[in-house]
Amino acid sequence: MSNDFVGTQAEGPKLPRRRMLAGSAGLAAGTAAVLGSSAIAHASPAGGSGDAGSPNLGPAAPRRASAVPSRRTRIGIGYETWWPGHGWERPEAEPVLGHYDSSDPNVILQHARWLTWSGFDHLCVDWSNNLGGAWTSGRADQIMGATDKLLEIYVQHKIKLQLYLLLGLDGGKVGTPHFVAEVDRIKSKYLNDPRYRPFFVEHDGKPLLTIFTGARTTEPPDWSDDTFTVRYMGAFREIVLNPGGVWSWVDRVAYANGQTAAVHPFSKTDWNGWTADGDWKVETLAAQPAFNKVVATDVAWNKPAQGAAQSTGSLTSPAFTISDRSLAFDSVGFDMQAGSDLETTDGRNVFLLKDAVSGKVLRHAVPPGDSTRLYVRQWNVADLVGRKVVFQVSSKSSAGGGLGWLGLDGLWQQRSEQMTACVSNGGNEAPGGYAN
């Protein structure tokens, strides 16, 4: 059977391996690719093709050559060690292999075989519900103990998968005594043990530690630890871009995450070099992202006052040099021809990236068709690194009724580090998305 497809004789239609991985990601919420971290050993098949507990799955994913560039994309998947083998007293059905316990060595090995066969590089082991009452009730000990057992099995069977941990906040706070005790346990139990240390993913030369902030957090906490490369993770955060290295845990749209640098940030009192042609101003928008949380955000726009006529014009950044692989901004407003190709900017409201010398349009995007929500727009600009460009908000729409304006809250160059798979609303390419 070709390595490009997966399936067994007992299954229905076979899926290309890439689609199979995407499907697994959807089921396991939080699949991520870490981009540009230090080299990670690829998982080799454990136990040959197939396994003792299920039908032959066909050939394993091919090994990746050891000589591949260190910046290749590495694929990870969320993994939970929460399940004690009891509970859920009224399930709709029983798994084919029966009920299982996350700390059962046979279960851990079975999972490892499936994951290595599928071609995954690492696991994001979810400890995000580990604090609060769980820390004092013994639930945290169970979750951590199952992770201990997982590492024991990986050592015993020479599993090549790696992992990093996703911690949670303690009652919405970071740096509490419970949280610090958990971090100290990671250091003493895992990082100081030469058997376990190689299993931990490194990013920027240190073990990667991710911390789940929750869907409502708009800025990362300021706790850090020099032992780790710390990255905070939010969820459903495509509506409000979080500068500061926040990664996405679950999202409706796939786009790159990473550390950001603002490009000529403007304010209510200073355009900071931006050229405003027309009636542009910076005002506060009470943005309404997911979960009905209002986030006050300063936005540059040409939204008219109540009853006033719609103005046209442009807002143009100073020239700057593309230094990172992604360029992102949060957009708001309208373009009544958003579904049409951009043959001309006449009559359109669009965001443009232009060559600073020739004026050639290199990238474009349209506003989301929303007046109260901010939507991420992101461009892959890897091919433009080193090029001098300008960013322009072009407003030439004649639409009335409050539908002729657009705006943004800033512009960021991003060092792309991680991308979350589309795990909700499959096939949805808007709003946002990692556009080329």
**Average residue-wise pLDDT:** 78
Q: Which segments are poorly predicted (pLDDT under 50) over 5 or more consecutive residues?
A: 1-30, 36-55, 64-69, 424-436
The largest pleated sheet is described as: 16 strands, mixed
What is the element string, with H for helices and E for strands?
EEHEEHEHHEHEEEEEEEEEEEEEEEEEE
Count every helix, treating DSSP H or I runs of 4 or more residues as helices.
5
Provide the structure class: alpha+beta
Q: Note the overall shape.
A: elongated
Helix residue percentage: 10-25%
Give Rg in angstroms: 24 Å
InterPro entries: TAT_signal
Describe this structure in words.
Residues 43-69 are annotated as: Disordered. InterPro entries: TAT_signal. Residues 59-69 have a biased composition (Low complexity). The chain has 436 residues and is α+β, with helices and mostly antiparallel strands. It contains five helices and 24 strands. Helix 2 packs across helix 4 (139-156). It is elongated. It has helices spanning 17-27, 105-118, 133-137, 139-156, 177-191; strands at 5-6, 15-16, 32-34, 74-80, 122-127, 162-167, 202-203, 206-212, 229-234, 247-248, 256-262, 275-277, 281-287, 295-301, 313-316, 320-321, 326-333, 349-355, 361-365, 370-380, 388-395, 406-408, 412-420, 434-435. The longest helix has 18 residues, at 139-156. It has a 16-stranded mixed beta sheet that branches. The protein has two domains: 5-234, no CATH class; 262-415, Sandwich (Jelly Rolls).
